[in-house]
Specification:
alpha/beta
Length: 280
């Protein structure tokens, strides 16, 4: 084995990275995430709420680039009802059922963990906007379903914020300024993806330059690059030197070789200098 490529949890990823790197193998580990969207007061309301709904609840939140946290500059309350109404219209059902928007989460243990983190948030002072923990799907009474859930008044010191929930849960935080919002995102240990929603060019430019996250969207909720660009998660979301996909991905699975050739004769005897391309 010359190289190890891994996608999964923090604990497994760091164990694999340390073991493989210690034996001189090339390693890339994509791990956990807590992807934030920063919503400016001037953001287009309709487009932003549609984007957040899809990014938070698509695939039942079980994707590493899901937007699980929304930081509202100003206040989240003007946005909450619109997000709630959109989330309530989503169809929850078997993943193979036509028209289903959300399928089940991966296991019973995953459902229990999601519900436990939601409950811990409520105990810590979060306010429930929409609770999907007791959703029932006809024909699947024992299914591992969790409906769209929205918690507001969340703080960075809460376990529901610090842990990756990996389920259909959107946490809403508040910031007074864009600077404060950037500080919230940069203070989180993960650096997989983030987005800002705004109609202000200066705000977008400030965000993209000051944010310490590997993949940034400007009015794009899930900023996954096309395959010819690298998947550039950073900080606690990635361990290694060469990212997935793109040129970095090609370099990870290959070794560079340099070949120097010369076809002309080299008269003049022995030279102690490096070979050159000078004309004779």
């Amino acid at each position: 084995i010359k190289a190890v490529s891994f996608v999964g949890s923090d604990k497994a990823g760091m164990h694999i990275y340390s073991r493989a790197a210690a034996t001189g193998k090339r390693v890339q580990c994509n791990m956990g995430a807590k992807n934030h969207a920063v919503i400016m007061p001037d953001a287009s309301a309709e487009a932003t709420m549609n984007a957040l709904t899809g990014a938070a609840f698509g695939a039942a939140g079980q994707r590493c680039m899901a937007i699980s946290t929304a930081v509202f500059v100003g206040d989240s309350k003007p946005w909450e009802e619109g997000l709630k109404q959109r989330a309530m219209k989503l169809k929850i059902g078997c993943g193979t059922e036509p028209g289903a928007d959300l399928g089940p989460v991966i296991s019973k243990q995953a459902k229990e963990r999601i519900c436990s983190l939601v409950e811990s948030g409520l105990k810590d002072g979060a306010r429930v906007v929409l609770d999907g923990r007791n959703v029932e799907v006809p024909g699947f009474t024992s299914g591992n379903f969790v409906g769209p859930t929205i918690l507001a008044d969340v703080r960075p010191d809460m376990d529901c914020y610090k842990e990756e929930i990996f389920g259909p849960v959107l946490l809403c935080l508040k910031a007074e300024t864009l600077e404060e919002a950037i500080e919230i995102v940069n203070s989180n240990k993960y650096g997989n993806g983030t987005a800002i929603f705004t109609t202000s060019g200066p705000a977008a430019r400030k965000f993209q330059h000051e944010i310490d996250v590997g993949q940034v969207g400007i009015n794009v909720p899930i900023p996954v690059p096309l395959p010819f660009f690298s998947f550039t998660g950073s900080r606690g979301s990635f361990a290694g030197d060469l990212n997935f996909y793109g040129k970095a991905g090609v370099h990870f699975f290959t070794h560079m070789k340099t070949v120097t050739t010369q076809w002309k004769d080299s008269p003049g005897g022995v030279t102690m200098a490096f070979p050159t391309s000078q004309k004779v």
